[in-house]
Amino acid sequence: MTAEKLARTATLGAALPALLLALWWVATADSTDPYVPPLSLIFSTFPETWTAERLQHDVIPSLARLLSGFVLAVVIGVAAGVAVGSFHGLRHTLEPVLEFLRAIPSPVLIPVVILFAGIDDTMKILVIVYGCVWPVLLNTVEGVRAIDSVLTDTSRCYGINRSARLRHLILPGASPHIFAGMRQALSLSIILMVIGEMFAASNGLGFSIVQFQRSFAIPEMWTGIIVLGLVGIALSLLLGLIERRALAWYFGLRRSQRRE
Amino acid sequence: MTSTVSKPPLTDTRPMLDVRGLKKVYGGGRTDPVEAVRDLTFSVAPGELVCIVGPSGAGKTTLLKCIAGLMQPTEGEVVLGAQTVSGPPAGMAVVFQEYGRSLFPWLTVRQNVELPLKEKKLPKARRTELVVKALSAVGLEHVHDSYPWQLSGGMQQRVAIARAVAYEPQVLLMDEPFAAVDAQTRADLEDLVRELWRRLGVTIVFVTHDIDESVYLGQRVIVLSSSPTVVMEDVTVDLPAERDQIGTRSSQRFGELRTRVYSLIQQAKHHHDL
User: Fold this and answer.
1) Where in chain B is the domain with CATH 3.40.50.300?
2) Which residues of B fall below an 8 Å CB-CB distance to A?
3) How far apart are CA B204 and CA B217, in angstroms?
4) CATH of domain B16-89+172-179+188-209+220-274
5) pLDDT in tens, A93-151
6) Which CATH number characterizes residue A169's domain?
7) Which of A137, B185, B188, B223 could lock onto B264 through a cystine, CB 3.0 to 4.6 A?
8) Residue B119 is nearest to which of A154, A160, A256, comparing CB atoms?
9) Could you write out the DSSP letters of every residue in chain B?
10) Does residue A151 sit at the B interface (CB-CB below 8 Å)?
11) What is the ipTM of this complex?
């Protein structure tokens, strides 16, 4: 991509958010409703609310929970997905159970998890893991099953077996699907992090937003929501960056197929 | 020009590849069983280049998969060297028709050729040597770090051939390898196979549906019937070992042989219509 093209993409990408912010600004400029403060007030509250101390006290713990939950979910989801996708029998046995477990919304488990894991970080991480593992697992199963049979035959003919098969055939072959699952899991992980922190916590983004709301610090509450959105954008950009590197071959392959 | 006439394998030499009474029936259970291959027996001597040709749907792919150990025959056996094939044997390399699906798209050309050698636990220096030699043998010394999908179809098939050559197999199986490339590339690749075969002395089993190709390439052409498959005839190709696309294909003997194989195939097609 040329610099000029990149600049144009960036401009286009920034245009809509800028427009929405402008609309928000104009619509709330004369607002006297304490629950919908003017955007200007929210902006001016921002620096005093999100100080370095608060970032350390609330944002860092939130990120730590989110990332531990997400990474654990990916590891478990990929491992289980490879196993389920590789063995017919296992898939047929597990399918009804998986469908049942997947249908249980993760937040509903919070009271249950609190019973045996308490209200500390373990609970919050477990809730994230439980919610995020499904998209990763199911996409991995799909990815493993979608691996080309000619490639599988080729691997067998050339003695690529066991661990080499996993490393050189199954994981890279399923990786486009795995990344699709990870993208879904990432947005879920943010939601579940916030819900977990709203339930029972003494710090974190979800906790602060609820605290602000309960103490009628409405502009502060809004800034918290904005921070949450920014965290989401940053994480999704980061995942996109990793994906573009890891799947460079896949995007190249797709481009070459479109040319034909 | 030498006019070496290939002879059928002598009985006192052990064949490199022996297919004995091969039968493959698909299905059963809930569906009606389909007999794809009825009874195939033939052998290939060490260093031979044998083409297998048959009408479409003649169970060529089934046969090849059984030889490659990717599929268990219902009856009969395939013997490579002295061992019965029960899974993909170590001394066999396969070049598939679908080159685009048989190369690892996430590996570069070099890595694609090298990966099987790593699994053979060859030392690094030896691997590098084999990869460089194989890629230059197929005329691809300049694209080591490209990805397969950046190359044309013909070049991709060359990579697959290089991978097979670097593997140093006793037997090289080729499953309609040039069916999906254009005519000019196809002629080049045919000459490449002849050249590699003569230089490396590897045994090649080349499956094709193209009659001209089978006569041009092979020392023998095994003509299969339509499904359920048996061997119709084993045609010895007594063309000179030095072959070229124009001279050989316009020679009178080539014409006679292709007519012979062609009429056998026609017979094969009508055989089961009766």
Assistant:
1) 16-89+172-179+188-209+220-274
2) 65, 68-70, 87-88, 90, 92-94, 96, 98, 101-102, 104-107, 115-116, 118-120, 147, 149-150, 163, 167
3) 10
4) 3.40.50.300
5) 998 888 888 888 888 888 888 888 778 888 899 999 999 999 999 999 999 999 999 99
6) 1.10.3720.10
7) B223
8) A160
9) ---PPP-PPPTTSPPSEEEEEEEEEE--TTSPPEEEEEEEEEEE-TT-EEEEE--TTSSHHHHHHHHTTSS--SEEEEEETTEE-SS--TTEEEE-S-HHHHS-TTS-HHHHHHHHHHHTT--HHHHHHHHHHHHHHTT-TT-TTS-GGGS-HHHHHHHHHHHHHHT--SEEEEESTTTTS-HHHHHHHHHHHHHHHHHH--EEEEEES-HHHHHHH-SEEEEEPSSSEEEEEEEE----SS--HHHHHHSHHHHHHHHHHHHHHHHHHHHTT-
10) yes
11) 0.88
Beta-sheet strand order (sheet of B229-236): B83-84, B75-80, B17-26, B34-44, B229-236, B220-224, B49-53, B203-208, B171-175, B92-95
State the nearest Cα–Cα gap between B113 and chain A, in angstroms. Answer: 10
User: Could you tell me if residue A1 is inside a domain?
Assistant: no
